[in-house]
Amino acid sequence: MDLDLEQLSHDTDIIAKIKQFRDITMRIEDTMKLATNPEVYEKLSNTDKIQYNLLMSYSLNSMFWMYLRTEGIDPTKHRIKMENERLKKCMTRAKQINDRNIPIRRVNKDAAQRFIRNGLWEIKNKM
Q1: Which run of H or of E encompasses 92?
Q2: Is residue 62 within 8 Å of 88, Cβ to Cβ?
Q3: Which of 2, 34, 36, 68 sits a CA distance of 20 to 30 A from 53?
């Protein structure tokens, strides 16, 4: 009798995990439909298109990595590892280019000194 209850509990856990997997798969599918909408892509700036393309490539590589794992293949010994490293370099390069386009703000030292000098409280001597 204990074995049957244990098996039933195990079956219930498996069913719950399968339902959770199905729900996650459906959310991924909905997200992919939105992400692959050409109307959304055309509205993006060039910088956003670069980030979008890198994100899509990284996502597909990650999904392939997971597929290899489910097939019992070690992804660290597969060509996908080199592709992921290449993508990481591209992401780093895109970030460097994006950061270079952001204007650097300079501090006006004279104005800052005036603000500080006028903001400090001075004790007046009453002698």
Answers
A1: helix 80-101
A2: no
A3: 68
pTM (2 d.p.): 0.56
CA neighbours closer than 13 Å in the CB half-sphere of residue 48: 7
How many residues are listed for the chain in this entry?
127
60 Cβ contact list (under 8 Å, min separation 6): none
pLDDT in tens, 87-109: 999 999 988 888 887 676 777 88
Instruction: Tell me the residue type at 51.
Output: Q
On whether the CB atoms of residues 70 and 62 are closer than 8 A, the answer is: no
- Cβ neighbours of 75 (radius 10 Å): 17
Which residues, 6+ apart, have CB-to-CB distance to 41 below 8 Å? 49, 52
Comparing CA positions, the residue from 37, 87, 99 lying closest to residue 60 is: 87
Which distant-in-sequence residues (6+ apart) come within 8 Å of 40 by Cβ? 34
Give dist(CA 4, CA 7) in Å, integer: 5
How many alpha carbons lie under 13 Å from residue 34 in its C-beta half-sphere?
Answer: 6
